[in-house]
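stage 2 :: seqdesign
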């Protein structure tokens, strides 16, 4: 474009062979900059996908986890995929949102209630990157997920504390756990994600238990978040008083099945959250829960009130 403009202004060029060219290059650059800004503005207003907001959907998948994240610039992340029987609900939900591709897929840890539906998700959608903690689990569900990933020639990026994902210029995504490499409980391998959108932060904890919580606290990384996905379906294995104090959430989301055999969520954890003045949202009572951030404030809406 620069050369094009210079060539099409021969009268000035004829007057002086050096100085006007320099002046023109400035003009051309200003024009180029203006046109680029105009182009970006037009593209943003015509695609209809770029909302500028961050949306985090906590899907009602019963006693399991499945979280869909839609970034301000229209990228999609999926954190966990419920049980095997939830695959259809998750896939239909994504399609209803207009999702055609999952840019980042995170399996927090290899338990069935977090990866059960992921095989069909991987088979259904084009997938960008896959993140999983470095631990194996000898179940058919886990094996089938790895086979589906291999079938699509995808590679797994090990999820570990300190890893930052380049998702969207307006959204910072960082793994806070696992900090260590060897745990007694498979839950403590859980990938924990901190999403930062302007001043609004979400902490997604998988099923991380108090061992992992202590490590996150010891790491010195600020844990404060506006929305906390309560770890391990509200079990008293997690959400220790010191961890909750460090996170200081305004909203807590518990992904849990009605009448589940584990008696989740624990009364103790519900009381602890209530005493801390946290607004509690439960998928067994509220259905699918959607938290929307504009970068300054967060609003939470539920399917059932
Ligand atoms: Zn779980």
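stage 2 :: out
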């Amino acid at each position: 474009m620069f050369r094009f403009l210079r060539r099409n202004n021969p009268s000035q060029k004829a007057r002086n062979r050096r100085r006007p060219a320099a002046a023109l290059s400035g003009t051309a650059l200003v024009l180029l900059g203006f046109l680029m800004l105009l182009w970006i503005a037009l593209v943003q207003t015509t695609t209809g996908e770029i909302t500028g907001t961050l949306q985090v959907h906590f899907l009602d998948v019963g006693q399991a986890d499945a979280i869909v994240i839609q970034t301000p610039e229209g990228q999609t992340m999926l954190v966990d995929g419920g049980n095997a029987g939830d695959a259809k609900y998750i896939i239909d939900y994504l399609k209803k949102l207009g999702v055609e591709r999952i840019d980042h897929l995170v399996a927090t840890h290899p338990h069935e209630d977090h990866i059960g539906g992921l095989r069909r998700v991987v088979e259904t959608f084009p997938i960008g990157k896959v993140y999983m903690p470095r631990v194996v689990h000898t179940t058919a569900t886990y094996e089938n997920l790895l086979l589906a990933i291999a079938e699509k020639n995808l590679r797994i990026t090990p999820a570990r504390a300190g890893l930052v994902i380049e998702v969207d210029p307006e959204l910072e995504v960082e793994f806070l756990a696992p900090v260590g490499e060897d745990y007694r409980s498979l839950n403590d391998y859980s990938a924990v994600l901190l999403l930062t959108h302007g001043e609004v932060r979400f902490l997604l904890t998988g099923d991380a238990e108090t061992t992992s919580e202590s490590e996150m606290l010891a790491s010195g990384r600020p844990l404060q978040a506006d929305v906390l996905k309560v770890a391990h379906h509200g079990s008293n294995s997690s959400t220790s008083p010191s961890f909750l104090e460090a996170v200081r959430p305004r909203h807590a989301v518990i992904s849990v099945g009605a009448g589940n055999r584990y008696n989740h969520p624990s009364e103790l954890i519900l009381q602890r959250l209530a005493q801390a003045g946290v607004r509690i949202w439960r998928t067994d009572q509220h259905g699918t829960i959607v938290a929307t951030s504009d970068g300054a404030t967060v609003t939470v809406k539920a399917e059932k009130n």
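stage 3 :: structure notes
- The chain has two domains: 2-47, 54-302.
- Residues 65, 111, 113-114, 207, 232-233 surround zinc ion (CB under 6 Å).
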